[in-house]
Amino acid sequence: xxxxxxxxxxxxxxxxxxxxxxxxxxxxxxxxxxxxxxxxxxxxxxxxxxxxxxxxxxxxxxxxxxxxxxxxxxxxxxxxxxxxxxxxxxxxxxxxxxxxxxxxxxxxxxxxxxxxxxxxxxxxxxxxxxxxxxxxxxxxxxxxxxxxxxxxxxxxxxxxxxxxxxxxxxxxxxxxxxxxxxxxxxxxxxxxxxxxxxxxxxxxxxxxxxxxxxxxxxxxxxxxxxxxxxxxxxxxxxxxxxxxxxxxxxxxxxxxxxxxxxxxxxxxxxxxxxxxxxxxxxxxxxxxxxxxxxxxxxxxxxxxxxxxxxxxxxxxxxxxxxxxxxxxxxxxxxxxxxxxxxxxxxxxxxxxxxxxxxxxxxxxxxxxxxxxxxxxxxxxxxxxxxxxxxxxxxxxxxxxxxxxxxxxxxxxxxxxxxxxxxxxxxxxxxxxxxxxxxxxxxxxxxxxxxxxxxxxxxxxxxxxxxxxxxxxxxxxxxxxxxxxxxxxxxxxxxxxxxxxxxxxxxxxxxxxxxxxxxxxxxxxx
Length: 525
Prior knowledge:
Serine Threonine Protein Phosphatase 5, Tetratricopeptide repeat
């Protein structure tokens, strides 16, 4: 009969200890020792009993049982100081004092109290899977112990920033720093604390220069996911500390998301829950093409069916409708625009404290109903909630470009690239840069950015339109006419007269400039 306590299950027949479904590596004596404490949880088990049950006729020292008790505690997240689950009774032995659930059938458990009485029957809870991470204290390689505060400050800032990601479970600072100064086994840390990912790093100071290295590891498999190096000057040490923390978080958040997406892809379709549907939808959304976007929309709807209050799923679904609109893929435009707006409003209502929901829902609302000012306000709130969310910066930059604030838009877009230099949505940042430079009158630069975006996604209608108009304004009429043919192949119904319904441009001069460029390129009225 399996014993369940807290988030752990010890299966006697399988000889397996698991935490939230993941195997915890323990030695045979450690397993047997824990099993004996669980079987006899109604009383103190003497050292003699444990020695006899676990080691039999073998002669072992008393220190052996002490070290194995410590290993038991470590395996189940306990400690000698806390003794939350395994209590030492002076001069008598040990006792398991946690609540134990003996599972006879799925969904029903009997809870045993500390006195061993059967107190109540309650349904067994299946805990949802959630990506989890611990940031270990960075090693100070400077040879100067006084620089510890700098390394510690960076780690604290990274932990704080990661904690703003609602989809991520982050081990608290105090638990992380128990590993300071210790040689650690990354996989062991992951098992001991029940986290999938471990971020570790080092700091080296030389004169006025400092170098920070970091690496992200999937502790469940011992695989390296990401590594990076950051350098700077110590002229303003706290600004540098903030910048490095921001850069690390901006770099690893997409890597965590990609790792989780790959993990979700491997699951059988009939066992996916709302979060996995959301991840699979996000993976499709990043591809940007029509077929992938239709698949993404279906996956987000399925996530919503499973969790009708999943704000981020509403936001992503609304954003799919926006992307279909701007690329000319809608079939019943009025109905689909109305549906996208409905989803976007639900996203921002349900997700007042959800940066992803506010970002995608707010941006979709701005395009679908034309309220750019409200969209910018929603994305600004998203940035307050999570300053390291790259989409809130590049989508906010695009909205600012549509409002005519080209310099602010370019700053926002550059910041997004800095946060996530390998982002799967880089083509969106590039088309945003093309948009901002076009409205600033820098047509050659706009052309270059549009071509970069098309290099990443050749079917990107906004980039083709911007390229055609930019080429026309810069006097490259032959190229512009070829580009317009490409534009009409992507959307045969695209016309100059549709421009005001296509993009929510806030300044008349921007609409006129775009329309004139497309006319010069040969696009029909």
